[in-house]
């Protein structure tokens, strides 16, 4: 038989990986490598790099204990080739292996590199997902609009999650209406389960401190799970302590609590330490026991088997150029306050500070604060895409780019979202306590102290009127704008232009 290399990437840390199932541990050689190309093609958050490297090292140890010959390359090894393809070529020359088997990566960039690698490489399907590429393509074929809700229902039927025969539990597919409560007065959980760094993690932290000190983000304190056993503990803690109130407050935001009732399990699911279906089954089990209300269970499961599967389907359906789309032709540079520079906008300041500290912000902070501002201000969506890819521990292009380019920035022209997700300051005020401590006043619409979100909201609608005026979901917005006194509309637009000019000039805004 031909000796083969089995490539395992940093987001493929699953014992049931298709490449490992296809491999022969009696003669094939597992290749794992920490390489500069993957760590630096964007300047990833130091916590993200440390999470992946530490989890890789521990996964390699687990494979060795399971009888595999693992050839592992650390980032600072003298003979490190610097790239995945370079490492494969080096290991093939060392071992005499003639072929490589690999589970398909989650990024077109790396897929293309492996397809044209100088050593013959076989890409196997990544069947850790519920829907295959062909299944999603079949679902999408012939549809005028690819809306997640209908795909999600098919995934419910396929998995049987929250189903009672052929009907949804509770006689409703979606309980999102019950999941929009504003921020609570207090939070009854401390947050996700964190883990003290052991010797392996400390070695990685020291390496990351040395090599990636210029990257945005705080490396320490570091508390992510780095083994499957730890990730399972984190899952159990979420299900028992936070999930019962997750649904009610999943859209809320608080200055004093970065996590509220969110799971923070997406980094572990996305690198392979947890299986998405097992997490959903644990949530369903808690609901069946009566420990969790249905709006919490359904809301969480929808994020996994609905949204997560759906955006992966969109990413691969739309092709390699999808992250570069810019249908609205926005071209403003990403403001410096996304990298921690001073801003008077309290909501943005807190979202960015939390991102710097934790490599985490929940979906409403991403969509309705940092994403909403970028869309209203006309920031180049590719700059926004790269920022999200860099700063979040759970960000991999297959999941991040549809969320950013499509859902957040409407740069795909409506493939994902039926309307742009823009709002004035009123939404942020309703769902958070950010506005109370802000230099701007959310109640002020024009003039001195006016909330920039209020000004930019109408500015966005006005400059894109030709595109959105006939959108059924935006009619009320334009009717409200049209009912305003003409002089007031002129003042709003002039104030917005003045504010954007100060932003472009580098003033603290």
What does this protein structure show overall?
With 509 residues, the protein is mostly helical. 49% of the residues lie in helices and 6% in strands. It has a 5-stranded parallel sheet, sandwiched between helices. Helix 11 runs antiparallel to helix 12 (294-318), helix 13 packs across helix 14 (363-377) and helix 14 packs across helix 18 (452-463). The longest helix has 25 residues, at 294-318. The chain is globular, with a radius of gyration of 24 Å.
Key words describing this protein structure:
five-stranded parallel beta sheet, two-stranded antiparallel ribbon, 21 helices, 509 residues, mainly alpha, 7 strands
Quick synopsis:
This protein has 509 residues and is mostly helical.
Q: What is the strand content?
A: 5-15%
Question: Strand pairing plus helix content: what structural class?
Answer: mainly alpha
What are the segments in which pLDDT stays under 50 over at least 5 consecutive residues? none
Shape: globular
Compute the number of strand runs. Answer: 7
Q: What is the spatial order of strands in the main beta sheet?
A: 3-2-1-4-5
How far is the first residue's CA from the last residue's CA? 66 Å
Helix content: 40-55%
Order of helices and strands: EHEHHEHEHEHHEEHHHHHHHHHHHHHH
Note the total helix count: 21
Let me know the largest β-sheet.
5 strands, parallel
Rounded to an integer in angstroms, the radius of gyration calculated over CA atoms is 24 Å
State mean pLDDT (0 to 100 scale).
97
């Amino acid at each position: 038989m031909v000796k083969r290399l089995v490539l395992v990437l940093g987001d493929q840390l699953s014992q049931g990986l298709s490449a490992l199932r296809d491999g022969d541990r009696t003669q094939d050689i597992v290749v794992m490598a920490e390489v500069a190309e993957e760590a630096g093609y964007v300047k990833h958050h130091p916590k993200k790099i440390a999470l992946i490297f530490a989890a890789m090292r521990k996964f390699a140890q687990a494979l060795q204990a399971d009888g595999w010959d693992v050839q592992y390359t650390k980032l600072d090894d003298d003979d490190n080739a610097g790239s995945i393809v370079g490492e494969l070529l080096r290991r093939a020359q060392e071992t005499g292996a003639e072929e490589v088997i690999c589970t398909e990566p989650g990024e077109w960039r790396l897929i293309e590199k492996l397809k044209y690698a100088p050593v013959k490489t076989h890409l196997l399907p990544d069947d850790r997902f519920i829907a295959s590429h062909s299944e999603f393509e079949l679902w999408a074929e012939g549809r005028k609009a690819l809306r997640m809700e209908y795909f999600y229902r098919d995934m419910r039927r396929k998995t049987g999650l929250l189903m009672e025969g052929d009907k949804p539990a509770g006689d409703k597919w979606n309980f999102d209406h019950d999941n929009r409560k504003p921020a609570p007065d207090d939070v009854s959980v401390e947050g996700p389960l964190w883990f003290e760094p052991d010797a392996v993690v400390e070695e990685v932290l020291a390496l990351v401190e040395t090599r990636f000190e210029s990257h945005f983000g705080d490396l320490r304190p570091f508390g992510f799970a780095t083994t499957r056993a730890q990730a399972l503990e984190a899952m159990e803690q979420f299900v028992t302590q936070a999930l019962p109130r997750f649904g009610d407050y999943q859209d809320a935001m608080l200055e004093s609590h970065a996590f509220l009732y969110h799971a923070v399990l997406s980094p572990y699911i996305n690198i392979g330490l947890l299986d998405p279906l097992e997490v959903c089954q644990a949530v369903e089990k808690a609901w069946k026991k009566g420990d969790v209300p249905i709006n919490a269970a359904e809301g969480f499961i929808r994020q996994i088997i609905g949204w997560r599967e759906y955006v992966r389907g969109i990413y691969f359906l739309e092709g390699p150029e999808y992250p570069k789309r810019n249908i609205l032709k926005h071209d403003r540079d990403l403001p410096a306050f996304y990298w921690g520079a001073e801003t008077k906008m309290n909501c943005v300041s807190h979202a960015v500070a939390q991102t710097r500290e934790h490599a985490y912000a929940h979906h409403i902070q991403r969509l309705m604060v940092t994403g909403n501002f970028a869309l209203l201000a006309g920031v180049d969506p590719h700059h926004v895409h790269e920022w999200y890819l860099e700063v979040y521990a759970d960000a991999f292009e297959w999941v991040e780019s549809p969320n950013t380019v499509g859902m957040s920035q409407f740069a795909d022209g409506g493939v994902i979202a039926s309307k742009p997700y823009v709002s004035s300051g009123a939404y942020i005020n309703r769902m958070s306590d950010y506005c109370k401590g802000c230099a701007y006043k959310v109640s002020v619409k024009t003039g001195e102290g006016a909330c920039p979100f209020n000004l930019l909201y109408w500015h966005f609608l006005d400059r894109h009127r030709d595109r959105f005026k006939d959108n059924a979901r935006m009619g009320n917005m334009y009717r409200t704008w049209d009912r305003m006194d003409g002089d007031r509309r002129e003042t709003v637009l002039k104030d917005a232009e003045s504010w954007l000019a100060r932003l472009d000039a580098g003033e603290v805004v």
